[in-house]
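Hello forum,

I keep getting stuck at the same step: I have a sequence, I want structure tokens, and every attempt I make locally crashes halfway through. Rather than fight my setup again tonight, could one of you with a working pipeline run this one for me? It's a single chain of 174 residues.
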Amino acid sequence: MEKSLIQGLKLKDRDAQTAAYKLYRTPWYMICLRYCSHKDDALDVLQNALIKIFSKIDQFDELRGSFKSWSSQIVVNENLQFLREKRQSIQLEEEAMQEAFIYEDEDTNILSSEELTKLIQQLPDGYRTVFNMYVMEGYTHNEIAAYLDIGVGTSKSQLSKARKMLQKSIEVLV
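Reply #2:
Ran it on my machine without issues. Output:
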């Protein structure tokens, strides 16, 4: 099924584009919501990501991974580009990082993904960006520092602060 979808996308077939959108819109939109604090911004970023996905489909190589992974990476990159352009202030401080995170154990997973997404959206831009890149997307602190043009220590500090804020928010909800 994915092969025929990719072939249709490469031929710029509108039906294939619609099918891809219907199939992947939820995970793509959830990525956008994790990075953007406003739904309108998330929709704008998703629209820009869709344009890139459909215009760069010839660069997709099915031997290197799935379409979902490839397209999701484009969505992440588009969100990062949006945040760089917006640059609504990432006043970042250098601090030592403490290892801690919200409830990763399945037995204590008491928040729905929707509730967690809303809490992540409430984080300040800098915290939210580093948190998403590290925890949700799997970037290293070195990669985050390079992408955002910040120090590695700053990335670690922002992650630590984001985790603390999320933990406090969760404690209030529980």
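The two ends are 43 Å apart (CA to CA). If your local run keeps crashing, start a new thread with the error log.
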